[in-house]
Amino acid sequence: MGQIIIKTPEQIEGIRSSAHLAAQALEYAGQFVKEGVNTEYIDDKIDEFIRSHGAIAATKGYNGYPKSSCISLNEVICHGIPSKQTILKPGDILNIDVTTILGGFYGDTSRMFTVGEVSAEAEKLIETTLHCLDLGIEQVKPGNRFGNIGFVIQRYAKALGYSVVYEFCGHGVGVDFHEEPQVDHASRRNTGPEMKPGMIFTIEPMINQGKPKASIDRYDGWTARTVDKKLSAQFEHTVLVTPNGCEVLTDIHDEYPVT
């Protein structure tokens, strides 16, 4: 494992601004999530919003990725490519994932949206996944080990009969898109590096109704689906370790107290 960057106060300020913008872009996108809308249209709106605020989308052109966001429907775990052909219909659940580069700094966040009435099973999966994120964030404090994030997430999801995707993980972020450390969402207690003030990383649990394994689309090389075509959900925040606890940098509604 490479070195985990301890951010300077100046870097933290820049990352905080970018994270705030990413969260605003995600909220802005929500108004376009409705029946009959294609996901490329939503992606175009996200791109316009980000550019109008003096930033660019980190995903566009990243390792050849073609769009400004990832929009993943139903059985798609992550990295769903927005397209004109993907049209939202009642009962769909979808994750929209946005990463901004503002002033050279990165902010990364995602959340679930629903189209009309969704099944009780889908609703429960979404609620469970959000709670998994909350449990992971509760573990963020100086001196704790990164493995404890994945430990509490996996314990909770498994107790409710769900599986945790292990092939994708959270990651350090801020001065680059993907930095150390790797933040696993299924791990052993008290393992991994120690958290220290100034570290910034994402927690982004992907929770499946069925098996945890992903299948990557051979045609586009990006879209990751559940192997059994059962539903998947994901939420993501960018988090800063503070001297006493943590600050959720992509929280624009004061849902998480700064500690």
Description:
The chain is α+β, with helices and mostly antiparallel strands. The protein has a single domain (9-248), classed as Creatinase/methionine aminopeptidase superfamily (Creatine Amidinohydrolase). 26% of the residues lie in helices and 24% in strands. The strands form five sheets. Strands 1, 2, 4 and 5 form a four-stranded antiparallel β-sheet that branches. Strands 3-12-11 form a three-stranded antiparallel β-sheet, with no helix packed on it. Helix 1 runs antiparallel to helix 2 (39-52) and helix 3 (120-138) packs antiparallel against helix 4. The protein is globular and about 45 Å long. The model has no long low-confidence stretch (mean pLDDT 98).
Short description:
By secondary structure, the chain is α+β, with helices and mostly antiparallel strands. It contains four helices and 15 strands.
Radius of gyration: 17 Å
Average pLDDT, all residues: 98
* CATH homologous superfamily title: Creatinase/methionine aminopeptidase superfamily
Beta-strand fraction estimate: 15-25%
CATH architecture: Alpha-Beta Complex
Largest sheet: 4 strands, antiparallel
By DSSP, the count of extended strands is 15
Q: Total helix count?
A: 4
Order of helices and strands: HHEEEEEHHEEEEEEEEEE
Secondary-structure class: alpha+beta
Please mark out the parts with pLDDT under 50 across 5 or more consecutive residues, or reply none.
none
Compute the separation of the termini in Å: 28 Å
Shape: globular
Q: What is the C-level CATH assignment?
A: Alpha Beta
CATH level-3 fold name: Creatine Amidinohydrolase
Provide the helix percentage: 25-40%
Q: How many domains?
A: 1
